[in-house]
Amino acid sequence: MAYDYAKFIRPGRLPHIWCPGCGYGIIMKSMLRAIDSTGWSKDEIVLASGIGCASRLPGYVDFNTIHTTHGRSLGFATGIKLANPALKVIAMGGDGDMSAIGGNHFIHACRRNIDITVLVFNNYIYGMTGGQYSPTTPMGAKATTAPYGMIEPSFDIARLAVAAGATFVGRTTSYHAVPMEKLILQALNHKGLSVVEIMAGCPTGYGRRNGQKAASDMLIWEKEHAVPYEKAKNMTEAEMAGKFAIGVIYKDESRPEYVESYDRAVGLSKRG
Amino acid sequence: MSKDKRFLQGNDAVALGALYAGCRFFAGYPITPSTEVAEKLAAMLPKAGGRFIQMEDEIAAMAAVIGASLAGRKSLTATSGPGMSLKMENLGFGCMAEVPCVILNVMRGGPSTGTPTGPGQSDIMQAKWGPHGDHPCIALTPSTVAEQFTETVRAFNLSEKYRTPVIILTDEIIGHMREAVEIPAEGELEVIDRVKPDCAPEDYLPYDSSKGDVPPMANFGEGYRYHVTGLNHDASGFPTAKPSIIDSEERRLVRKVEANYDDIVKVEEFMCGDADRIVFAFGSSARSAKDAVLALREKGVKAGLLKALTIWPFPERHIKKYADGGVKGILVPELNLGQAVCETERAAGGKCPVEGLFRVDSEAILPSQISGTLERF
Ligand SMILES: Cc1ncc(C[n+]2csc(CCOP(=O)(O)OP(=O)(O)O)c2C)c(N)n1
Ligand code: SF4
Fold this sequence. Notes:
The complex is a heterodimer of chains A (272) and B (377). Chain A has 272 residues and is of the alpha/beta class.
């Protein structure tokens, strides 16, 4: 039987704003199935987003939701978690939101290892504002603000997260809807800061300027360029050129979580 | 019972006032001359069951404070000039999403880095107009260490009552000076908490103004699942593009503060009864103004002081009363090149001359400067 999403969708909030062929709808569905598997109640879940197409997701789903300012969801999420650590906090945003304007908050949230799950929707482009380049736009790719091709090297968001101190880091794509669900579930259940980078197609802002006219072209591209991490680990840099690893990339359950460390350090034994 | 009397620094008084008001969360980023507030609360908040965090910048600190308030904790951040500039976008978000919180700006001169260790009063207009768009503004201006305490309590009360961020505009002089303060006993000062919804969660509309301009507020995690956004939204909290709703909600946002002048605007009228000339002052400049008035009275000059403890909404009715009453003039001393003076002029409506006395050399305005000018009126 097909999965019934109705219990998580806010009545009257659909249709969503996303373009036909946008990868974000697949992410929303995988995320909802993962949340369902946690067994958490809707009342204890908080979704915080920044600004952008990805960041419109919280408005559609029936949790405590906050659509903040561009790049700042992790600041808000940190305050929410510290105020009430019993809440399950999920922050989300696009590649621009999380790694350009919000890059500073992203690395510091990772460093603190606060118990928040961060979903980065990486479509290589600024979708909402119409296709300008982002810190993940591949070299040579076209964007409205890179009409001659992108000349800046890109961020590898998952590696950035590991380097900054996140204790669970994974990557997936909108093609891998079921593995994505399982990866997000692992991230949600991880105690500490978890990051899932999700490659997703933006046919409107990226694909049509970069040889992937149809949404299906983008899904096929994701399938063909994703390499399971266990395999990627043993491949040379040359073999991995243009490709990316998917799956669990890093996991460390030994490092203390931020709010617990705080409470221990200051003598706040009981949480409130 | 013996009184709890302490010799306190102005910044410490804000920290103690915040705790008295029920503040249980602080997020900030160090900046002179405000840092003592963060240091004090880093030590004291956990003892009161609260939490403290030093964020990566003031943008994140402002965000964290709004987030913590949404999750049910009264929250404070403290900063000065450059940090205040960074807070502006999220401050506007707090106004739009109607989230109570308190922002302390210990003013120094500026622009840019200015003189970090010197006083200023040059962020008066920034407090009101810093965030883009039309929005409500409540800003308080204590001028003694005791007022640092009581006005901080009032700032929290107003933010909870009106569901909006409240700014405390103090300055380096008051932040760093020490005075003897009697700490109010528990229960001595009123402490106001946000009004929560009494309806069933399925009937809750987070921005329902049918019963008044300030809608009841549920905290995240209490069973009232709702959406918060900085986009124009309707009573349900979801974005709207309907011109009539955008219009009515923006007007309500501003009205909920502006229509409550008598409750929010606090002005001390010192020797104003028979005064034929008035000095309108706030913060550290009000201290010099008081000395000036006392000195002039000794000489038989009928001077009076209007000391603003609320600078936004601007105390225009108080000023108008004296302008209409036929005083010879109103003097506005301020540590900037003319901000409150323009508002004063507007309030006086041409009924009497309004003059400014400005200083931006990082020194306080002297009582003699004020009395000298007032004498000429
Ligand atoms: C402070 C600020 N600067 C700029 C913008 C304009 N803006 C809105 S969304 C966006 C970028 C969106 O790209 P991304 O974060 O990658 O998300 P996507 O839309 O692709 O999901 C920008 C620049 C803004 N809203 N706020
Ligand atoms: S612009 Fe791109 S990211 Fe935004 S909804 Fe359309 S396809 Fe999706």
